[in-house]
Design goal:
2 copies of one chain form a homodimer. Chain A has one domain: Alpha-Beta Barrel (TIM Barrel), CATH 3.20.20. In chain A, the strands form 2 sheets. A 6-stranded parallel beta sheet of chain A has the order 2-3-4-5-6-7. A two-stranded parallel sheet of chain A has the order 1-8. Chain A is α/β, with parallel strands linked by helices and about 325 residues long. Chain A is about 40% helix and about 15% strand. Chains A and B meet through helix 5, helix 6, helix 8, helix 9 and helix 10 of A and helix 5, helix 6, helix 8, helix 9 and helix 10 of B. Chains A, B: This is Hydroxymethylglutaryl-CoA lyase.
Chain lengths: ~325, ~325
């Protein structure tokens, strides 16, 4: 298998990440975070969801955050939307200067139990509603994509039959979304499953671009990302710092960390638009704001080779002649 | 690429893991840990190193620990040895009942600076000394293998030329070791490197079994393990709980966690001798003894599907009919 030579990243920290953080951030801090991500080279960012503030208090200030973001031709700001009311809110963020949400993200859940619990919709309802939203968004001139969530497993139903996911992908394709994402929402997938499921879905909907979304809940997230790449997927979700899962919570659910993924990609000669050093600096800042160490490992251990390599080498005596030859 | 259908695990927690833990354990606790690993199905365990107690205080009680371990025909107890003095100590643990160290692990370092810093030997010295030890061990009727360490990078020298590693593997093969391991000692490798290096070394020494050793320092460890498997490697090191790297230390250096690897393997239909539930229980116990949460993620999030799946499903309403069909 041959992986793509460049990867397009979708930064989901401000939405999927933050909504699972215990501490609520000020809108101004969220704006600083998103601007920092833009400065770090990220150009496609899931900035908010338009859901009930009671269900997700962290997203209550979606409009205020988006109002503080720049209008740029090279920027895609994704708003997650689960119903038509949320869509109207996302649409209302569009500004005369071209700013605001310019891509709609919809979700259909592969598990019926999870769909009912997570968004108060049955599986079929979630798919049908996503279809309505995608058609509306396209009519309004916005990009619109769909994430099939919990495709590798559900905490209530256990295994999900790949045939269910493939069938949903076919039905989702009828809505002509700009992209279909397969999400390991609860972080249970392993690379062999990822390879097989992307292979099957690619075959079922060959004309629709695919995206992959992983959580590192069971430490398989980065391996799954690599497996997706090897299956030909060139667009991956990640969240700066691995935002979203407290390491001490019983069910840590952080997304794969953007900097960990970028480290792997760049050292594999796979290019991205991201700047690793700036991502690491941003993780330090947001970790302080949230009052906890974030799970990203590259931010903790540092990139490689280290910036102070020459100094380290001198210190170790590595440039001196060998002490003795046997 | 097709991965092996079964994997042989080498548990390195009691040595590589513990020696990097700040808190020193009682010998009795180490014995309990190793017996717990045996109960969890592990049959090849690196139980101690025979090095200067000044350099590695955690290993000062190597003899006492080994004296407390059972003699079993199906058990391989590895002692790590860096010089002939250490070898004599390992040999002296052999007991009349068949117990004691029955496999010697040697180390040759791919980076000269790292070799000097880590074991006070130049690269060539480390290789030559390993050769002497392997010949002695074989003469004494013991298994003996060699680990080539820091093969993907060195904190002092940076990149390591793969040609250096391939050349070392060829020279190591002349000692007729029972196995050659390639170790990402400082946790910098990425899957593409792993695949390429194992491919090259396999070609250079086709007659010697290969083993892989990864640290999860930059969150690439599990992805690297999968890449090694896909490159045909069927023996992997791991440490229970991911022992060895404090998550709050600037350079976390834990081995990949045995339970995280086992989770991935079993869900990929790759068999091992390990029992996941017992590993998780053991991690809880050793974490308490060390006074910290260990980095293993599966022990935190739990296996999948969860044991209480039926209950969870009932609670979520997933077995009830869908509320409404669109």
């Amino acid at each position: 298998m041959k992986h793509p030579s460049s990867v397009s990243l979708v930064e989901v920290g401000p939405r999927d990440g933050l909504q699972n953080e215990a501490r609520r951030l000020e809108s101004t801090d969220k704006i600083t975070l998103i601007k920092g991500l833009i400065d770090a080279g990220l150009r496609r960012i899931e900035v908010a969801s338009f859901v009930s503030p009671k269900a997700v208090p962290q997203m209550a200030d979606a409009e205020a955050v988006i109002a503080g973001l720049p209008a740029r031709d090279d920027l895609t700001l994704i708003g997650l939307v689960l119903n038509m009311r949320g869509y109207e809110r996302a649409l209302a963020t569009r500004r005369a200067d071209g700013g605001g949400i310019n891509e709609i993200g919809c979700v259909a859940v592969a598990s019926n139990s999870f769909a009912l619990r997570n968004q108060g919709q049955s599986r079929d309802e979630s798919l049908s509603i996503a279809g309505d939203i995608i058609r509306r968004a396209h009519g309004d001139g916005l990009s619109a994509q769909i994430t099939l969530s919990a495709v590798y497993g559900c905490p209530f139903e256990g295994e999900i039959d790949p045939a269910t996911v493939i069938d949903m992908a076919r039905r989702a394709a009828d809505f002509e979304p700009d992209e279909i994402a397969l999400a390991d929402t609860i972080g249970v997938a392993v690379p062999a499953q990822v390879r097989d499921l992307f292979g099957s879905v690619r075959e079922a909907v060959p004309h629709i671009p695919l995206r992959a979304h992983f959580h590192n809940t069971r430490n398989t997230g980065i391996a799954n990302a690599w497996a997706a790449l090897e299956a030909g997927v060139a667009t991956l979700d990640a969240s700066v710092g691995g935002l979203g899962g407290c390491p001490f919570a019983p069910a840590a659910t952080g997304n794969i960390a953007t900097e960990d993924l970028v480290y792997l990609l760049h050292r594999s000669a796979v290019t991205t638009d991201a700047d690793l050093d700036q991502l690491i600096a941003l993780t330090g800042w947001i970790g302080k704001k949230l009052g906890r160490d974030l799970p990203a490992q590259v931010s903790r251990a540092g990139p490689f080779p280290p910036a102070n390599l020459k100094e380290a080498k001198l210190k170790a005596g590595g440039v001196q002649p060998e002490r003795k030859r046997p």
